[in-house]
Design a protein that fits this description.
This protein is of the alpha+beta class. Helix content is about 55%, strand content about 20%. A 6-stranded antiparallel sheet has the order 1-2-3-4-5-6, covered by helices on one side. A hairpin with a 3-residue loop joins strand 2 and strand 3. Helix 1 runs antiparallel to helix 2 (about 35-50), helix 1 (about 15-30) crosses helix 3 and helix 3 runs parallel beside helix 4 (about 135-165). It is elongated.
């Protein structure tokens, strides 16, 4: 089950300058163009001058920060899946599942998640993010896989304890 991230989103009346800084940082990490980030700076300057944040700006801010959080969570789970179930060869860890494949370069910290048909879902290369059709359903699929890994590891640990008795 996904944590209720959207419940944590600020409303227009509770936005702080830190929220706007976080938005700028999220946009930067998401690889948004310079004009996009300049517009965030303009919104932040207006906010500092006492202007109310528009509903549109609030919506975009929440979308960007949620997208970055989703990418971060997905990459954490994908790395864990790769480390637990994947095959490692020097600095590269790969996992090929029924629906998705994962490649993680531990030295360069690059991560690629693709569908079985070769379509890239998430590509992190040298700190740059590229997403394609990243949906809440895909994130939920990875959350479910993470839960299954937890169950398998717990069962394995319980069996090891029983053997040692």
């Amino acid at each position: 089950m996904l944590p209720p991230l959207q419940a944590l989103r600020p409303s227009a009346s509770s936005v702080t300058i830190d929220d706007l800084r976080n938005w700028y940082n999220a946009a930067d990490k998401l690889g948004k163009p310079e004009n996009y980030k300049k517009r965030i700076v303009e919104v932040a300057n207006g906010f500092k001058a006492g202007e109310q944040l528009s509903a549109q700006a609030l919506t975009v801010m929440n979308q960007d920060t949620f997208e970055l959080e989703a990418i971060s969570r997905l990459s954490q789970i994908a790395q864990r899946i790769g480390m637990v179930l994947g095959k490692s060869d020097e600095n590269i860890t790969q996992f090929l599942g029924k629906i998705y494949g994962i490649t993680f370069n531990t030295q360069q910290r690059d991560l690629t998640i693709l569908q079985k048909n070769g379509e890239i879902i998430l590509n992190l290369q040298s700190g740059r993010v590229q997403t394609n059709k990243l949906t809440p359903q895909i994130l939920q699929t990875f959350e479910d896989a993470n839960t299954q890994i937890d169950r398998i590891l717990t069962k394995s640990q319980t069996q090891q304890i029983d053997i040692q008795r």
